[in-house]
Amino acid sequence: xxxxxxxxxxxxxxxxxxxxxxxxxxxxxxxxxxxxxxxxxxxxxxxxxxxxxxxxxxxxxxxxxxxxxxxxxxxxxxxxxxxxxxxxxxxxxxxxxxxxxxxxxxxxxxxxxxxxxxxxxxxxxxxxxxxxxxxxxxxxxxxxxxxxxxxxxxxxxxxxxxxxxxxxxxxxxxxxxxxxxxxxxxxxxxxxxxxxxxxxxxxxxxxxxxxxxxxxxxxxxxxxxxxxxxxxxxxxxxxxxxxxxxxxxxxxxxxxxxxxxxxxxxxxxxxxxxxxxxxxxxxxxxxxxxxxxxxxxxxxxxxxxxxxxxxxxxxxxxxxxxxxxxxxxxxxxxxxxxxxxxxxxxxxxxxxxxxxxxxxxxxxxxxxxxxxxxxxxxxxxxxxxxxxxxxxxxxxxxxxxxxxxxxxxxxxxxxxxxxxxxxxxxxxxxxxxxxxxxxxxxxxxxxxxxxxxxxxxxxxxxxxxxxxxxxxxxxxxxxxxxxxxxxxxxxxxxxxxxxxxxxxxxxxxxxxxxxxxxxxxxxxxxxxxxxxxxxxxxxxxxxxxxxxxxxxxxxxxxxxxxxxxxxxxxxxxxxxxxxxxxxxxxxxxxxxxxxxxxxxxxxxxxxxxxxxxxxxxxxxxxxxxxxxxxxxxxxxxxxxxxxxxxxxxxxxxxxxxxxxxxxxxxxxxxxxxxxxxxxxxxxxxxxxxxxxxxxxxxxxxxxxxxxxxxxxxxxxxxxxxxxxxxxxxxxxxxxxxxxxxxxxxxxxxxxxxxxxxxxxxxxxxxxxxxxxxxxxxxxxxxxxxxxxxxxxxxxxxxxxxxxxxxxxxxxxxxxx
Length: 816
Prior knowledge:
By secondary structure, the chain is mainly alpha-helical. Helix content is 60%, strand content 5%. It is elongated. The chain starts with a helix and ends in a 14-residue tail after the last helix.
C-alpha cells in the first residue's frame, strides 16, 4: 500500500504541475496582449499564412513548455489503456522541487498509471481529452495484465499473504509494545513481590515486541522493495532497499521508526536501577514515549498520507487512532497477566494493586475507545465517504468486519466494567479471586478480538480506500427523498413514520437514563422504532442496481456531450424523439410509452442507473440493452448528453438573477484556444467566477463593446470573461475589431463544440452564462446582443462573491 500511496502522491503532483504551468503560461501572456498580437498578425498576413504561422508556433510553444518541465502535447493526447509514461515523458513531467525524480519514483509513477488508471485525465478537457478514467482510478484488466507481463514479481496470492502477515505482526507488536509500557506506568510502582515479578515479565515481553517489530518491519520493507523494483531479488540488494528508504515517504518513515525501535529495544535490554521513585518514573516513562514515537509515525506511511486536501489533518487523526489502539489494545494482555497472577493464593499480596490497576485501566480505556470512535469516524469519512463505498467496495466491507469485531470486543469490555469490576473488592476466597480469574479470561477474549481487528486493519492497509474504487451496490433498492416528489400521500406516510421513530428514540434514551424503567422503556422504544421504520422507509425506496453508484469514467465535458448527442440520434431518437420528449415514431408500439428524457425524473436517477439501463435494457418496457452495441465510453458519452439534456430543460426558468446558495446546474468543462497560445480549460479558472458569452456578430456588437469597456471592473471583482463566437469563426478576434481593445479570451478553436453543448441550456442570438467559483452556472441572460444594464450584472457578481465557498466535490464529480 505504501507504493500505492507514493504513486498517487506523485501522480497528483504531476497533475498539479500541469495546472501550475498553465497558470504560469497564462500569466506570461495576458489575454489583451494575445489579442493585440493576433490583430497584428491578421493585418500582416492572409488567412493561409496565419494557419502556417500557428503551426510553426505550436512546436516552439511545446518545446518551451518541456524546457520548463512539461510537454503539453503529450499530456493532451488520450492515453491508451496500459500505456506507462516513458523516460522522456517522465523527465518533463516528473520533477519535485526542481529536481528530477529518482528511479524509484519513476517506478511509482509507472505503477500509479495502473493503479490510478485514467483518473489523471480528469485534468484534461474538451476536444483534447474527452475520455476520463474511472473516478479515483479503477483497475483496468488490460492495464493490469500488461503490467503483470512487465513485472515478474507482483502481488500474487502468496506475496499478498506474506505481506499481510508481516504487516499484521509489525502492527500488532508495535501496538503491544506501547500497551505494555503504558500499562506499567498506569498500574504504578509497587513493593509487592508478585507485582514486581509481573513488571519484570511485562518488560521482557516489551523487549520481545520491539524485536518482533524490527524483524517484521524488515520483511515489510523487503516485500515493498521487491514490488517497487519488479523482481524478488531486489529485497536483498542494498542499493534497491536504499532507494526505497531514501526516495519514498514510506521509506523515510520506516527509517525513523526503525531507529526508535532499535533504541527502545536496546534500552529495554539494559538493567537500569530504579530504586528511587524518580528513576522508576523516568525509566518507565521513557519506554512509553519511545513506544508512542515509534507507533504514531505509521500514520504518515498509510492511506492518510494520500488524502488531499487536508493531508496533515488526516495524518494527525490517524496518529491519534493508532495511539488509542496502542493504549487500549496493547494494555489488555499485560492486564490479563496481572489479574491471573493476583487471582492465586500465592499472588494475594498483589490483589489490591491489581484492583487499583484494573480501575485505572478501565477509565483510561473508556477514554481511548472514545478517541478511537471519533477519529475512526473522521477517517471513515476521508476514506469511504458514502454508504455505497461502505457496502459496495472491498475496503468498505473490511471496515464493516472491523466494526463487527470492535462491537463484540466492546460487549465484553462493557460486561467486564459493569459486572466483574465491581466484584473484585469482595471477599477474597469466595468473591474477589473467582471474579478476578473470570475477568482475566474475559480480558484475554477481548484482547484476542482486538488482535483480530488488527488483522483486518492490516488488510485495509493494502486495499485501496473506498473512494478509489467503483462501488458495486449489493441491494435491489436504495433510499432517496427524490421518491417523494409529486407523491403527497407517500410524503405524509414518511413524515408520520419519522415522528414515530423520534418518539421511540426518546424512549430509548430515557430507558438508558432510568434504571428502574429500563426494560419497559426499552421494549416500547424498540416497538416504536420498528413501527417508524415500517411506515417511513418504504415510501423512500427506489429500485437500485449494481452500477447505481458507479461514477462516470468519461468526464462531463462538451466533447463528450456532443459525441453523446450523435449517439443519441443514431440509437435513441427513434423511440424517445429527436429532442428526448418521448414522442419518437418507433415508440408507439412499445408496451410502455418511452420516457420523456427532459423531465426531472432523469436528473433524479444516478448516472449509474442510466448506465445499467442503457447496458441491459428495461424489462417489460421494450427498451433493449446496448451493452453489446456501444462501448463503455460511448455509453458514458450518451449519459453525459442525457444529463445535459435534462439539466438544460430544467434551466429554462433560470434568468439573469442569482439565487443565493442554490447550486445545481453544472457547467460542462471545455478546452479552447486563443490564437497561437496553448490550450486552456474552463476548470483552469476554478476559484474565480467566469462569464461565458455566446455571441454572434453583428447583432452582439453593442453588448461586446460594453463588456470590453467594463472588463477591468469585472477583473477587479474576480471575473474572467470567455467569449465564444456562435458561428465558430476562426477570425473571430479580427472581426471584433481593434477598438475597444478586447482584453479577455476570444475562442478561435473549440467554439463549435462549446456552442453545441451550451445551447442545450439556452438558445438565443446572444447568451451570457455566469459561472461561480465552484463551476456551477448561477445565472443565464438571453438577449439579441443589445447593450444592457451592466450594473445589474455587476450586482450579481458581487452577490456571488459574498457567498462562502462550500467544501464539496468538484462539479464534474456530481452524479445526477
